[in-house]
Amino acid sequence: MDVEIHPNAKKHLTEKQVLGAWLAVTECIRREPKDEPPRWLAIGWLPDGRSVELVAVELVRGGLSFMPCLQSRRNFGRRLNGLGKGVDDGQDVYGR
């Protein structure tokens, strides 16, 4: 599978940290916005025990593109829990 990491994501984490957190995901849902490619919203763990927000967009040619990754925030986890129950408020993970 092809994996791309957005340059802005590398401001916060190394490529190795992003991929490691993706392999250590504890919460994950898939969203399919009407006008955008499908994306995965997830909370993963770094080796040092910090949790991080991960947003991965499915690429047309296959694979994933990881968007900027941040230390996970409380409302991100709540949003994942709500969306996991079938609620899609039409907003992206940052409330836009």
Short structural summary:
The protein has 96 residues and is an alpha+beta fold. The protein has helices spanning 15-23, 74-84; strands at residues 3-5, 25-31, 39-45, 51-58, 64-66, 70-71.
Question: What does this protein structure show overall?
Answer:
The protein is an alpha+beta fold. The chain has one domain (3-84): Nuclear Transport Factor 2, Chain: A, CATH 3.10.450. It has two helices and six strands; from the N terminus they run βαβββββα. It has helices at 15-23, 74-84; strands at 3-5, 25-31, 39-45, 51-58, 64-66, 70-71. Strands 1, 2, 3, 4, 5 and 6 form a six-stranded mixed sheet that branches. Strand 4 and strand 5 (64-66) form a beta hairpin. The longest helix has 11 residues, at 74-84. The radius of gyration is 13 Å and the shape is globular. It starts with a strand and ends in a 12-residue tail after the last helix. The model is unreliable at 84-96 (pLDDT under 50).
Write the layout of secondary structure elements.
Blueprint: E1 3-5, H1 15-23, E2 25-31, E3 39-45, E4 51-58, E5 64-66, E6 70-71, H2 74-84
Parallel strand pairs: 1-5
Antiparallel strand pairs: 2-3, 3-4, 4-5, 4-6
